[in-house]
């Protein structure tokens, strides 16, 4: 019986001998014997032999042996075998093998396993693999893993996947990642997630990204002195389109600071509804420039005669 061989005897088996080990004998090998195999012996195993290895055997072998698997052998691993691998073993899968795994194989990885992938492994994911991640896997990614994703990878996520991203995850993205998101990706962020975005993220948006926000997303922006609308840079507020300005609720407009109101384009001010204008206090409007004041669709107190804000 093979399992009676010493580790030294196991190492003496040539590749041809390894190839003809039957399933029963292979499954009888101890982890010590499997760990004694050289890289050449490991790669001599046929795909059928690899699939015959028990979960206990795979979970017990050294990470070096997992790394020694060829791409063809890695692709032969069943879902149950992959799911049985320890987090350390998962990390030992070479990126060249990882990118070849099928979506079915990836789907077998649990959140704990996926969460332990190195940033190099995450960056190596091809787009179709990323698209196959389920909600639990996607939400389980660590901040360092999210920050390792390229712009192309982020934009490859489906609308359904982006819908699953929470504000805490989006807030972990770098400003370069945020500014690289496509308009479609921005539109796919839920209003709930938008409501929790940090000022850093909001101010990292480009003008085209800002204008990609839907009315529902705009209406989700928080108010108050430290709210999202008042914390956004004046350029970001100026980037809002006329339809987006019109989508602002009366509560949002009335909560805007004088500085925030001054950043609105004259054309946008002229398109405000009567209800929106009436919701803003006269003292807030008094700080508009002459051109902005003149653009108001209804009369609000006495118009100022110069661009100097009234005391």
Explain what this protein looks like in three dimensions.
It is built from 36 helices and no strands. Helix content is 61%, strand content 0%. The protein starts with 6 loop residues before the first helix and ends in a 16-residue tail after the last helix. The chain has 311 residues and is mainly alpha-helical.
Write out key terms for the chains shown:
mainly alpha, 36 helices, 311 residues, disordered C terminus, single chain
- Global Rg: 30 Å
Low-confidence stretches: 307-311
Structural class category: mainly alpha
Choose one word for the global shape: rod-shaped
Oligomeric nature of the chains: single chain
In whole angstroms, the N-to-C terminal distance is 97 Å
Helix share, percent = 55-70%
Tell me the strand percentage band: under 5%
List the helices and strands and how they pair.
Elements: H1 7-11, H2 15-19, H3 23-27, H4 31-36, H5 39-44, H6 47-52, H7 55-60, H8 63-68, H9 71-76, H10 79-84, H11 87-91, H12 95-98, H13 103-107, H14 111-115, H15 119-124, H16 127-131, H17 135-139, H18 143-148, H19 151-156, H20 159-164, H21 167-170, H22 175-179, H23 183-188, H24 191-194, H25 199-204, H26 207-210, H27 215-219, H28 228-231, H29 234-239, H30 242-247, H31 250-254, H32 258-262, H33 266-270, H34 274-279, H35 282-285, H36 290-295
Give a brief rundown of this model:
This protein has 311 residues and is mainly alpha-helical. 61% of the residues lie in helices and 0% in strands. The longest helix is centred in the first third of the chain and has 6 residues, at 31-36.
